[in-house]
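Build the 3D complex.
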Amino acid sequence: MLDIKYIRENAASLKKAITAKQLNPKIVDEVIRVDGDRRKLIGSVEELRQQINEHAAGLKSGQPSAEAIAKGRQLKEKLKDIEPQLAQVEKAFLDLMYQVPNPAAEDVPFGRDETGNQEVKKWGEIPKFDFQPKTHDEIMEALDLLDTKRAVRIAGNRAFFTKNDLVLLEYAVLTYALKHMIFKGFTPLTVPWMVNEDAMWGTGYFPWGQEDHYKTQDDQSLIGTAEVPLTAYRKDEILNEKDLPEKMVGISPCFRREVGTYGKDTKGIFRLHQFNKVEQVVYTVADEAVTREMHDALLGNSEELLQALKLPYHVLLMCTGDMGAGQRRKYDIETWFPGQGKYRETHSDSYF
RNA sequence: GGAGGCGUCGGAUAGUGGUCAAUUCCAAGGGAUUGCUAAUCCCUGGCCCGUAAGGGCCCCGUGGGUUCAAAUCCCACCGCCUCCGCCA
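Done.
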């Protein structure tokens, strides 16, 4: 969340940045207007409280007169009148504050949608076949490594069983990635797969991503990524600069409702309600140059894995219109899918 | 599920209605000072008004309540601990 002072002082440039992200810049004026109301009300409430405090302080010694008590009571009544107004305005203010996007970094290319993304790197040779290669899911089903038909019967769309060697292969790849990151000095963590709602807000997944998450009867959310518990890990703590950067690697299942993607990528165990993922998260100083260096380092870590596995990929720098509201800058890595004859997203790397 | 206890400034602690933003010790960061291996002293929560000086409000797990006045009394919730039961 941006500081309201920053918003007030940079309203014009912020609106421009929000427009570039293809979001509605009106939010800036709204938040500034409600902030004005809010501060006015804070003024009246604090003035009344001062009167109440001073009145009470004057009665410290001895038995106060009935008159003095009546006056104190009367002041309290007045306060009860305006305090709820302030509470209401504060709530409206906070709701709006959560909706103010972070501006993209200056070198992020402008674009309306995914067509504006820039390929910044290409690695590996795309394999050539003198036949039409099967898709990976066709191969897996044929070799009895994957069963989606029964999974769907049991668990609905986008469900799957892995079987036999594919079970071991998945764990091998996950372990490989995890060990790679531990080697690089990242602290490995397993994480809670359900988190309290405020972790979703605090990490910027809510309000925007509310539709995309599953909720429990106890108002917790199933995580869509280990990024949430890892980013919230130091919630309510004050960090020492000398302890930074703090590098963490998490491993967890990820749960995603995939609303609004009906019929999209239904084949090829690609867009799933549930999958396992290794996630890098780093806390570093609030310094753009330091953060960007780390951002590139994280990209490099992902690339090393793909290169070690000899998988051809390319790196996209996402344009303003195709990145999240909270993100400053974002890379996607897309890996070559021979059966589909195109690159598909397999990794994502951003800073906030 | 039942019974009980606890929650105070980064950590540990004192504080049972006004003298409390709050005691003491430790840690960390900043500053001052000193030639004897480090020591001593000072400062360090958030917000609102104000160019500033300064003024004010809030902050004792969270939210309500009682009272002229709440860290202190009452209620609810959250968290932690102990015992019993249940489950495995």
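Chain A has ten helices and eleven strands.
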